Structures are given as C-alpha cells and as structure tokens.
C-alpha cells in the first residue's frame, strides 16, 4: 500500500501565536502541495495561509499510515495534533500549548518541550514529549470536567503544576520531576513519576494509582497507610510500567509502601511510594 508523508519546514517564527488545529496526517493526505499551502491558520484576529509560515513537501511512502512532520521551533504554534485519530505526527523541535489535546488514536512525538495543557482530554493513542511539559498537562480543557481519558502519555523531562488534574483513565509517565498538586482531583488511571514531586501530591484524588519512584515523599495528612498487601496487583502494575525504562525498569524488584486517600474525597485512590 502507498501512504503519504507531508513535511512542513518552518520559514520564520510568527509574531503572534498560530492555531494549527485540524492539521492532521489524514486531513492532508489527499491534498496537493498548493492546497496545503493555502490552508487557513488562525493568527491573532486574522487568518493566514499555512504557506506563510511553512514550506511544504509531499512524498509517497510505503505503508498504510500517513505521516506529518513539522520541522523547526514550533513553540508559537498551538493545538498541534489536536483531535488526532490515526497516523503519525512528529514535531522536530518544541511545540506550543494544547499539543495532543483530545487525540483519540495515532502517534504523536515531540522532540523537544511542549507548552501548557499538553494531552488535555486525551482519549487514546500515544503521545511522547521528549522534553518537558508546562502546567495542567493531562488535565481537562478550561471549563471541562474530565481530564485525560485514555491512551499513553510519556514525558521525558519535567512536568509543571496540576499534572493529571481530573484524569479519568489511561497511563501517564514522567521521567523527570513533577510540580505541585500532581494528580489533583484524579478520578482513575495511572500516573508514575521517576523524579521528585512538589507539594500535595494526590490532593483530592478519588481513585486511581499514583506511583512515586523518586526521592522519599511524605504523604499528606488525608492519606493513611494501607493495611492489606496487594503483591499480585503491584507486580502487574510494576511490570506494565517497566517498559518505559529508566527508574521504572526495576520497580518490580523494589519495596513499596501503599497509602490510601484522599480521605477528604472518596479516599479510594492509592499513593504508592517506591523505596530506592
């Protein structure tokens, strides 16, 4: 089978932020280079053709999945990969806010940092940010009630505050440190952090699993030590996280302490502290 790979190379940085929602591999696959260059992009209060910012190349490739590659510093371009359903999208550099928001399938790779609200309301697929992400990643969109609802979200660097706020499902992994109020109001799903975390991890969490594999952390006063051991469940969780490597590779061989909370909410979440 033959698919299409579209390459967009940044010509110049825009003076204002640019909205790239709708720029997806499947959307561009049937368009010519001239049609892609004329696609309108929100720039402030105006609409500007995509060709104003990017040079466009189109290649036919073997395979059944179309691909889109953005090359350059895209930190002023927001909503990259929003609503992605299939295909591969790669950003060779940093990305702006809302990267991967609401995506339901496919693969999105950012070879740099990402801005605010990465993976917010993500429901499927795989998003990997090799650098760090800003505040409110894997959370709900402003005004929304549910955060990340499925898929896999991997952060190679650090994460800002309120990571995983209102998260409902899926797996999120942070290889660096996490900011304050990690997993706040979490409803379900799994978040694992390899580095140190900020104040009040798990604040208001109702259910779900928060695995802290970094330096020792003292749970908040609304978390209590669990009485029952869950060795089988822990081994299954540890082995599923081991595929992410780094500090997670040895989780199954390390001792852990399990706390339940947040008792100020439903108190059915678990905070797992992994010993060095």
What does this protein look like?
By secondary structure, this protein is mainly β. It has 3 helices and 17 strands. The protein has helices at residues 25-28, 33-37, 231-242, and strands at residues 2-10, 18-19, 40-43, 46-49, 54-62, 67-71, 77-78, 88-92, 107-110, 123-129, 149-155, 169-174, 190-193, 209-212, 224-225, 256-261, 269-274. The strands form 2 sheets. It has a 13-stranded mixed β-sheet. Strands 4-3-2-7 form a 4-stranded mixed β-sheet, with no helix packed on it. Strand 16 (256-261) and strand 17 form a beta hairpin. The chain is elongated and about 65 Å long. The mean pLDDT is 95. Its EC number is 1.2.7.12. This is Formylmethanofuran dehydrogenase subunit C. Keywords: Oxidoreductase. InterPro entries: Formylmethanofuran_DH_suC, Glu_synth_asu_C, Glu_synth_asu_C_sf. GO terms for molecular function: formylmethanofuran dehydrogenase activity.
Concise synopsis of the structure shown:
With 276 residues, the protein is mainly beta.
Number of strands: 17
Low-confidence stretches: none
Q: Indicate the overall shape.
A: elongated
Series of H and E elements? EEHHEEEEEEEEEEEEEHEE
**Rg on CA atoms, Å:** 20 Å
- What proportion of the residues form beta strands (DSSP E)? 25-35%
Instruction: Outline the biggest β-sheet.
Output: 13 strands, mixed
Keywords: Oxidoreductase
Pfam family, one: GXGXG
EC number: 1.2.7.12
GO molecular function: formylmethanofuran dehydrogenase activity
């Amino acid at each position: 089978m033959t698919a299409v790979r579209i390459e967009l190379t940044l010509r110049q940085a825009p003076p204002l932020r640019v909205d790239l929602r709708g720029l997806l591999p499947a959307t561009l696959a049937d368009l010519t280079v001239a049609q892609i260059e004329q696609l309108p992009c929100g720039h402030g209060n105006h609409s500007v053709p995509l060709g104003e910012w990017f040079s466009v190349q189109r290649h036919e490739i073997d395979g059944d999945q179309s691909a889109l590659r953005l090359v350059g510093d895209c930190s002023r371009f927001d909503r990259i990969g929003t609503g992605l359903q299939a295909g591969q999208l790669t950003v060779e550099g940093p990305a702006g806010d809302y990267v991967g928001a609401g995506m339901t399938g496919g693969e999105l790779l950012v070879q740099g940092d990402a801005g605010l609200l990465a993976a917010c309301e993500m429901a499927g697929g795989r998003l990997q940010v090799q650098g760090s992400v800003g505040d409110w990643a894997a959370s709900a969109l402003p005004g929304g009630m549910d955060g990340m609802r499925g898929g896999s979200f991997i952060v190679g660097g650090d994460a800002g505050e309120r990571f995983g706020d209102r998260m409902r499902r899926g797996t999120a992994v942070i290889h660096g440190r996490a900011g304050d109020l990690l997993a706040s109001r979490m409803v379900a799903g799994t978040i694992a952090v390899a580095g140190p975390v900020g104040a009040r991890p798990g604040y208001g969490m109702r259910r779900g699993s928060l695995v802290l594999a970094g330096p020792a952390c003292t749970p908040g006063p609304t978390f209590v030590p669990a009485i029952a051991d869950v060795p089988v469940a822990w081994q299954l969780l540890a082995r599923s996280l081991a595929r992410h490597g780094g500090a997670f590779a040895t989780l199954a061989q390390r001792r852990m302490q399990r706390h339940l909370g947040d008792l100020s909410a439903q108190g059915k979440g678990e905070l797992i502290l992994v010993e060095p």
